[in-house]
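Quick one:
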Amino acid sequence: MEQNKQEKQMISVGCSPEIKEACPGFRGMALSATISNTPYSEALWQEIERFTADYRSRYTVDTIKDMPSIQATREAYRRCGKDPSRYRPSGEALCRRLLRGLELYKVNTVVDLINLVSIASGYSIGGFDADKIQGDRLLLGIGQAGEPYEGIGRGELNIEGMPVYRDDVGGIGTPTSDHERTKLSLETTHLLAIVNGYDGDETALTHTVEYMRTLLEKYATGMDFNILKF
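Output:
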């Protein structure tokens, strides 16, 4: 796939028949951008801290269970064959971490801002280095027994019965954890982010992607944006 340092062709994203059958209400949105990542952004973390104080004043660990985005993702896991309490989707896990009084992880600027968007929306969001994706298409399917998958910071992850995005080589993203092979680093210049809307709320998905775009422009010199609905 031809590319240059300034701009990269949008990778197409689609759903397999098995996902459409298990989760007929699913809607997804993908955002691609050229970015400049940094180890840490003081201004972003000031925004995260303000958000955290407000979020903790409005929600508890018990009340977030009723958020449509979180509730629908948990139901999608059950429909695909996975226990969402044992393999918690990342959007829910981040919300719970914040509401338990713990600090968010500090990874790098782009990962940190994606985590902020995930908590604000309740959606699990995949963030990938687009240059590490093999081929020009991702397909959302369901994990198979024994399918190899190395989750970021998790080692081998059992993705059987879990929604999974695959490129030409194999799985790169699940709502629980993305794959080490395509993770975001300080060298990443082409981002592909995918918002997983198992609640089917296209208005909320659009708002979420626009919020992420704003943060990328503000904290990661984001440009060359492309947005895909699928």
